Amino acid sequence: MDFDLYRPLEEHDMLRESVRSLAEAKIAPHAAEVDEEARFPQEALEALVANDLHAVHVPESYGGAGADALATVIVIEEVARVCASSSLIPAVNKLGSLPVILSGSEELKKKYLAPLAKGDAMFSYCLSEPDAGSDAAGMKTKAVRDGDHYVLNGVKRWITNAGVSEYYTVMAVTDPDKRSKGISAFVVEKSDPGVSFGAPEKKLGIKGSPTREVYLDNVRIPADRMIGAEGTGFATAMKTLDHTRITIAAQALGIAQGALDYAKGYVQERKQFGKPIADFQGIQFMLADMAMKLEAARQLTYAAAARSERVAAGSGKEDLTFFGAAAKCYASDAAMEITTDAVQLLGGYGYTRDYPVERMMRDAKITQIYEGTNQVQRIVMARNLP
Ligand SMILES: Cc1cc2nc3c(=O)[nH]c(=O)nc-3n(C[C@H](O)[C@H](O)[C@H](O)COP(=O)(O)OP(=O)(O)OC[C@H]3O[C@@H](n4cnc5c(N)ncnc54)[C@H](O)[C@@H]3O)c2cc1C
């Protein structure tokens, strides 16, 4: 399929408008409270499920909306524009289930994608461990074959939406001598005996998205819950990140757009020296730079989404790894700068929780850290230069 980057942008305008109005009506009103109380955004989950926006990437053949990578980006972007925590519902549903979509058996796809598409179950992704972050291949969680089963033992750390999700893609060592080639991926269910969760982390931002440890204590699961062949789990995990780093870029774009939109309105209203501060050139130049950086980040993200779609359709060029890392790195750095500038534009008021830009600046920070820190993205880019 020949992918024209600009045609889908027009086609996706209606999707953006409808997600924006839903997000403003049903998600935005709860965003400050969700952050303040560090509680799961249940209202957002219900609104997203009611409108079939909670896991748009699931193919139609498994009961999903079958949205392409760009449409998925637009959904995440628009939800993040009003509430970053809520945007992790569609984003992590994709992250958790993409290993099954990319490498799982037909039986696994049927069993786990249908409830996800219906909104009956969420999916999480368990790669990181207390002592294996950037060096994820150094993980210690083990899966040992026992007849028709595997028995899993270990601790996964920093797992987004842990406790809320029904399903978990877990990467575990099946052959300790082979390092990354000795890692396999499995679907673990919340109700599997031996699965439990740590206390929610007390975080700087995205406070509405629970981040918890997942404990696997002699978790015995059928061998057919393995995703792909034994030893391919790490490769599947990395392939997944090539696609889903673009959703983190989308989250960064949304947070930055929310901050820019708010600051743009504020500077018209706020008067100093007898006129709106928007009349000062020093303010105008800041807004121009913010909008320029945001638009550059958006174009890179959409270009990466086009590559993700081509690769998913089997006709892709092999530069998705570079583009996924570049989009995530560039958009998250831009979001940090733009949200910091938005706080600056509101002066002392921007530094308080009475205004949303303070939350947006805290939320932006995580996009530079997860799915690989931005130092790691630069390593990935350097190894995969186009
Ligand atoms: C809120 C939150 C949600 C998360 N959600 C998930 C999730 O759902 N699933 C999951 O599996 N993981 C998740 N993570 C984990 C996240 O991906 C890791 O935190 C991240 O990969 C970094 O690992 P680390 O925290 O162990 O940092 P470390 O690897 O210890 O890094 C510490 C510092 O050293 C730098 N560094 C490390 N190695 C190098 C190098 N070779 N060169 C240069 N600099 C280097 C890092 O960039 C960083 O600045 C989440 C994390 C957070 C905070």
Automatic annotation (TrEMBL):
Which GO molecular function, any one, fits this protein according to its record? acyl-CoA dehydrogenase activity
The record's listing under InterPro entries reads:
Acyl-CoA_DH_CS, Acyl-CoA_Oxase/DH_mid-dom, Acyl-CoA_Oxase/DH_mid-dom_sf, AcylCo_DH-like_C, AcylCo_DH/oxidase_C, AcylCoA_DH/ox_N, AcylCoA_DH/ox_N_sf, AcylCoA_DH/oxidase_NM_dom_sf
Q: Which residues form the Acyl-CoA dehydrogenase/oxidase N-terminal domain?
A: 10-120
User: Where would I find the Acyl-CoA oxidase/dehydrogenase middle domain in this sequence?
Assistant: 125-219
The Acyl-CoA dehydrogenase/oxidase C-terminal domain is annotated at 231-385
Which PROSITE patterns would you find in this protein's record? ACYL_COA_DH_1, ACYL_COA_DH_2
Do you know which CDD domains this protein is assigned to? Answer: SCAD_SBCAD (cd01158)
Keywords attached to this entry: FAD, Flavoprotein, Oxidoreductase
- The name this protein carries in UniProt is Probable acyl-CoA dehydrogenase fadE25
* The organism of origin for this protein: Streptomyces bingchenggensis (strain BCW-1)
